[in-house]
Amino acid sequence: MAYTAGIWVFGQILDRYATDGYGPAISTIDAIECAGSTGRLSGVDLNYPWSSPDIGDDDVRAALDKHGLHVRTITPAIYSRRFARGSFTHPDPAVRAAAVELAHESVEVARRLGADYVKFWPGQDGYDYPFQVDYAQLRRWSLEGIGGVAARHPDVRFGIEYKLKEPRTRLFWSTAAASLLAIDDMGVDNVGLVLDFGHSLFAKENPAEALTLAHQRGRLVDVELCDNYREWDDDLTVGALHIVETLEFLHTLDRLGWDAPLKLDLFPYREDPVQAVRDSLDTIDLLRERARRLPLTELAAARADHDALAAQRIVRRALFG
Amino acid sequence: MAYTAGIWVFGQILDRYATDGYGPAISTIDAIECAGSTGRLSGVDLNYPWSSPDIGDDDVRAALDKHGLHVRTITPAIYSRRFARGSFTHPDPAVRAAAVELAHESVEVARRLGADYVKFWPGQDGYDYPFQVDYAQLRRWSLEGIGGVAARHPDVRFGIEYKLKEPRTRLFWSTAAASLLAIDDMGVDNVGLVLDFGHSLFAKENPAEALTLAHQRGRLVDVELCDNYREWDDDLTVGALHIVETLEFLHTLDRLGWDAPLKLDLFPYREDPVQAVRDSLDTIDLLRERARRLPLTELAAARADHDALAAQRIVRRALFG
Amino acid sequence: MAYTAGIWVFGQILDRYATDGYGPAISTIDAIECAGSTGRLSGVDLNYPWSSPDIGDDDVRAALDKHGLHVRTITPAIYSRRFARGSFTHPDPAVRAAAVELAHESVEVARRLGADYVKFWPGQDGYDYPFQVDYAQLRRWSLEGIGGVAARHPDVRFGIEYKLKEPRTRLFWSTAAASLLAIDDMGVDNVGLVLDFGHSLFAKENPAEALTLAHQRGRLVDVELCDNYREWDDDLTVGALHIVETLEFLHTLDRLGWDAPLKLDLFPYREDPVQAVRDSLDTIDLLRERARRLPLTELAAARADHDALAAQRIVRRALFG
Amino acid sequence: MAYTAGIWVFGQILDRYATDGYGPAISTIDAIECAGSTGRLSGVDLNYPWSSPDIGDDDVRAALDKHGLHVRTITPAIYSRRFARGSFTHPDPAVRAAAVELAHESVEVARRLGADYVKFWPGQDGYDYPFQVDYAQLRRWSLEGIGGVAARHPDVRFGIEYKLKEPRTRLFWSTAAASLLAIDDMGVDNVGLVLDFGHSLFAKENPAEALTLAHQRGRLVDVELCDNYREWDDDLTVGALHIVETLEFLHTLDRLGWDAPLKLDLFPYREDPVQAVRDSLDTIDLLRERARRLPLTELAAARADHDALAAQRIVRRALFG
Asked: Which chain D residues touch B275 with a CB distance below 8 Å?
């Protein structure tokens, strides 16, 4: 199975405390170089616009080609300063229009670079305080914004990455079910979910259950892997904490026949990103191999009886032999 | 506005530690007496079967009539020992059939007692461990069970009360959006949501947003009030902790034109239930009065600009004058 | 290494929904029989008083002897109806005195049955609402109650099992550090902590760090194992969710030279308790064996550099070979 | 009562998504100007070093004097890139020495500017993954680092601001009790706690209880106010969500005789900081006035009986008249 990674894994990470960054500034090109140097990735998820206006699409393509990297998706940066108060739901129609414009541009870039889909991560579309927004309006704009872009490009696939919160304390695209319901209401066929294992965990979902639901509705566009403490999007390396749930997630992907590349979404604040990627992929490889050891008939029998203990014994045997 | 309460508020409460109960055993009839003695309720939510086979529907009706209490809803006890491993999703078809049977019986009782709707709280339909169930199967049975009952009684309304967890660590009917999506898939018109403010809080929703969504889809059946620490269904008295969110919830109900009675869902483990009900209703009355002080045009303007600070100032003024 | 279990693992479990119990009523004697039938336990943690006044200490001893079971600890039931509003901190001095009296009785029973220590789990000592108690008073009574009992029996060891909440929404003995600080203030030498892995997890501690701290201060009395989703005391089987943290916990115990038996604290609501115990012990045995594979020098080097990735690789290798 | 604010409230805020900042870059001097322009502050909490090496202490003093601002505390920036892997606990002794050096420098600056105390917020001292650090070593270095600085300046007061997590997933100075225990072990008299209401909330403490504990031990150095959703350090405006707990906190401060200025710790990502400060102070003024309406004898009686309902009624009356 092939793997991809978000280009941000290799970029400079800042937060509100280390405002000088956890490492030096890194250009889009250098980040692609770094992604290539892992020797393990077939593609990347690229934030658009590029890190500097001096960089052209051809420069990006050249860097990708050098390492044989495919563009899995283009992700417009609808969460930077301009969109701090919202992208598709910003109170100012000019900013909403700018978000749509950036989305269209991203579609063009995606076409030029041969990306599989365009990803929206509407991390500023939401609110922070009670009474701050009109919820019906927020929903309407969320659906019209993305729905409108998708309707204009019926040949392109779009994926929405939901998350409960951060940077807003409440995001509109919050959970798998809330997002699937909103996508149903959009009335377009070419929009689905990007299901991030970590987002699912801290949204109090069971990731394998959310995966099953999204796939069943034909709305699964992409899958991202990482780990966290169930309360925040820590973006730790894969398997650092939730080995059983990661195993179940990989097993479920396999049973659903999902054969698209799996993506890594890590924030290695204090770690070497190349090593973080390699270690995460080693863990995924290992757990996928263990998932294949699961005795399907026996597992199905345990599940048919909702037998938690039998299921845990089967898991323990598959993991530890 | 009229108020109702769950009959359990007045019953004996047990938990896994005080297995001898936080007070003495109380019959359905005595609990109705207690509800009536509050002098503040127009109706009750009754668990069925009654506390003892010796009690007949006529006894219940007599007790209700004595206090002028209406039956807001009948709630079948699909969470007791027989259904510990599931009601509509129990692995054993005989138990699933028993759940359906109890649901039909509850419809008959609801008809006889003139209840407004039949409520399902499928608190045992879910799982506790990863790998324990087949998620697609769990969903299928959940929808078929309730959907089948609803299709058989097209003249009756049904409400599903969702909750993230407890007593299972994961419930199928977990959030507002997950439940609305599942109800859409059922293909029946007479099923909707019972939105419990506290369940919404600890499902990491904003209750007023969930309310807006359910109402907009024509799926709001009933509303329950209580409070908690956002992590568990503590069922504290109304307004004990979340005054601003409760205000927003009541304001939203008012704006949506919701004029059905509001229900209390309290577990006064160590408190007098009559006093807990009166105090909660006093707080609701007070906050409804404060909600009516909100200057609608000014609030709409603040919201139109997503102006959190202006909105908080408006709230502070309405609350504190 | 030897293992013990709480006798409640084998008893009838109730909760506020399945008030008729997840299984039939089970006497202290029958629960001991059940514990013995696991074939894997060297001892038990016994709640006192026994399930019925008809049962005498000699009956208990006979049942224990039959299965070669040791009494690891006596745990007075200071959380049942009488103590619903507090045991050592109840507002009524008569109830506080009753808690002390029951504690003294438990010491006598512990002496008679040869228990290693007396355990307090003050699950009703706390509060539920803001403004409900005088915090300084709550602290004073908590310390005086347990401290007074301990001072009266300087030859006996006492362990306090802390927990963040449940059944109160806030417990006084909440975290490892809060409890260690309070024990320091008690001024007695014979009181320490019972560290429950699950309680530590959902108190937002790292269990291995809490263990290190308690041991370093000479205050570690006993250790209990289980698992949960980090938000509530789910008491799932060992290793069901947190394999890495359980491994770290067992490794830390080993490095600290802890050779007392490890105790299981499970609530197998819907599972066979004998099987739940055997499976949990199999997992512990397996993880203890994997912990011994950890290359100590290499791990120390990774830790000396705070090298998270190296540490995770070492863990992965020890777990999966 | 006087009020202060962290200077960061008025600075540029970045996060890992809006890496171009939620507003333009702002110098220390401009931030002081902004603080002064609120017209409501008596002092500030200043991060050191200043925003640029071109700014001298005299420039800072001049800006402060212009607005009559006092320096409440100097907070060394032991959380920027250099200290990303730790300050007092960094694995490299050279970096640990640099943290100590910056602390000493901060003491000198504090002396020159007449600050009341020096604040440590060791947000990088902790870890992110299980097995990453030696917990005993982490504790030793944490205590030696701060304890050593404090011992060198016995005439200066030091305050430690604890927080459960962020930016590390686990911080050493995590809760009030853990920090008080560690301070006890330091063996110095001039170190105490800076208790942030929001940090206390999301550490699952009750802020008023933590306050009582710290004050009782003579370890309360300063108090900061803000609000959040109990899961993360959202730094919302005061009273936005937790009116009752804020009231209890202010009431407790009053009863303890705390007359030092109260500090604001806000991150107004999308709001005007001047307005956010004014609104927060208006809320504090209002709630302090309401706190003074609490009938002390009646409240004491309710508390003496742990009467939650009576206490809530008293609170409702004080708040709403």
From this structure: 309
Which of D134, D135, D299, D312 to mutate to test binding with chain C, by most C CBs within 10 Å of its CB?
D135
Pairing of strands C170-171, C126-127: antiparallel
Backbone angles phi, psi at B157, to 5 degrees: -95, 145
Closest chain B CA to residue D313: B279
Contact B308 D239 (CB under 8 A): no
DSSP state string for B34-76: HHHHTS--SEEEEEES-SSTT--HHHHHHHHHHTT-EEEEEEE
Nearest residue to A289 via CA among A320, A257, A245, A258: A320
C232 in reach of chain D (CB within 8 A): no
C-alpha span between A227 and A241 (Å, rounded): 7
Compute the nearest-CA separation of C173 from chain D (Å). 11
Give the separation between CA C6 and CA D177, rounded to whole angstroms: 29
Q: What are the tokens at C158?
A: 């006492």
CA dihedral C101, C106, C107, C113 (to 10 degrees): 150
In 3D space, the residue among C178, A133, C201 whose CA is nearest the CA of residue D181 turns out to be C178
Three-state DSSP class for residue B210: helix
Q: Among residues 42-71 of chain D, which lie with CB inside 8 Å of chain C?
A: none
A231 touches chain D (CB under 8 A): yes
User: Token match 């506020």: residue?
Assistant: C16
CA D23 to chain centre: 23
Question: Do D291 and D255 form a contact (C-beta atoms < 8 A)?
Answer: no
Domains of chain B: residue spans and CATH? 3-294 (3.20.20.150)
Query: Cα(D287)–Cα(D290) distance, rounded to whole angstroms?
Result: 5
Cα angle D186, D262, D151 (rounded to 5 degrees) comes to 20
Each residue's pLDDT tens digit, D212-262? 999 999 999 999 999 999 999 999 999 999 999 999 999 999 999 999 999
Q: DSSP string covering D184-240, please? A: HHHT-SSEEEEEEHHHHHHTT--HHHHHHHHHHTT-EEEEEE-B--SSS---BPTTS
- Region of C68 on the Ramachandran plot (φ > 0 left; ψ -120 to 50 alpha; else beta): left
List CB contacts (< 8 A) between D130 and chain A: 240-241
Are B124 and A309 within 8 A, CB to CB?
no
For residue A1, what pLDDT band results from cuts at 50, 70 and 90?
Answer: confident
State the DSSP H helix or E strand holding residue C43, giving kind and residue range, or none if neither.
strand C43-48
For residue B302, which of B316, B285, B287 has the smallest C-alpha distance? B316
Among B124, C76, C242, C201, CA closest to A243: C242
DSSP A15-60: -SS-TT-SS----HHHHHHHHHHTS--SEEEEEES-SSTT--HHHH
C320/A284 Cα distance (integer angstroms): 13
pLDDT per 10-residue tile (average), chain D, 321 residues: 96 97 98 98 98 98 98 98 98 98 98 98 98 98 98 98 98 98 97 98 98 98 98 98 98 98 98 98 98 98 98 98 90
CB contact under 8 A, C316 and A240: no
DSSP state of C153: -
Q: Does A18 touch chain C (CB under 8 A)?
A: no
Per residue in B228-242, is it b (16+ CB within 10 Å) or e — as a string? bbbbbbbbbbbbbbb
Per-residue pLDDT of A102-140, as tens digits, reads 999 999 999 999 999 999 999 999 999 999 999 999 999
Cα distances (angstroms) measured from residue D317 to each of A173, B256, B316, D49, D293 = 39, 29, 16, 48, 9
Between CA D107 and CA C20 the distance in angstroms is: 65
Residues of chain D with C-beta less than 8 angstroms from the C-beta of B237? 308-309, 312
Rg (CA), chain D: 20
Query: Interface pTM (ipTM) of the complex?
Result: 0.97
